User: Which sequence fits this backbone?
């Protein structure tokens, strides 16, 4: 998935609050301020629900169905999609943008976008908003291709492993633990194949 552009004030979203309550509604406001991401939705009953870092643990936003939206869904500048071939792209769940509240590398909570929806049952990979990108091609709409140089990895919890390109090979065994075949299958441990590693682990390990 491409990274979501906060500032959107239309569309549909689903908020999951800290107590597990789920609210569905039309987006009235999204933004990213000093206290992090904020999103307001209006439910079918007219109630305005305000989702914030302190009261919400996850949310998802329906991806646009326009021609431009579909183009973006297969050409992300800063997601695992940049590392996937055409066949793997078809495996991604491009219907929603998914966000979870996680602890970043400094131990501070924030919302991060899941970038491997569709093959995330064993390991989840989240975009790093501050990541630099490798060199890539120019894409219509001003998006720059190429993969990010860092991601957050998680396994079903808010605890994450922050992994940079330069440290990926050393982190490989820890990230994909419990599956010894990963080391024999991918002896080079190339960062450029991270999407393949994640997909294989999700489908064949644990």
Assistant:
């Amino acid at each position: 998935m491409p990274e979501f552009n906060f500032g959107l004030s239309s569309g549909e979203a689903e908020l999951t609050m800290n107590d597990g309550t789920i609210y569905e509604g039309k987006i009235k406001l999204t933004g990213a301020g000093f206290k992090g991401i904020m999103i307001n939705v209006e439910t079918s009953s007219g109630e305005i629900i305000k989702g914030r870092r302190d009261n919400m643990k996850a949310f998802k936003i329906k991806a646009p169905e326009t021609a431009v939206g579909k183009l973006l869904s297969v050409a992300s500048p800063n997601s695992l999609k940049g590392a996937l071939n055409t066949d793997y792209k078809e495996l991604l769940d491009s219907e929603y943008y998914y966000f979870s509240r996680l602890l970043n590398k400094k131990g501070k909570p924030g919302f991060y976008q899941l970038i491997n929806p569709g093959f995330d049952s064993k390991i989840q990979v989240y975009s790093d908003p501050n990541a630099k990108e490798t060199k890539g091609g120019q894409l219509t709409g001003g998006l720059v291709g190429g993969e990010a140089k860092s991601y957050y990895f998680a396994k079903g919890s808010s605890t994450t492993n922050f992994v940079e390109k330069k440290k990926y090979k050393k982190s490989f065994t820890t990230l994909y633990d419990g599956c010894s075949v990963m080391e024999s299958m991918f002896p080079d441990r190339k960062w450029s194949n991270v999407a393949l590693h994640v997909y294989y682990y999700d489908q064949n390990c644990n």
Summary: Helices lie at 67-73, 86-89, 168-175, 181-185, 194-204. Residues 67-79, 81-86, 135-146 have pLDDT under 50 and may be disordered.
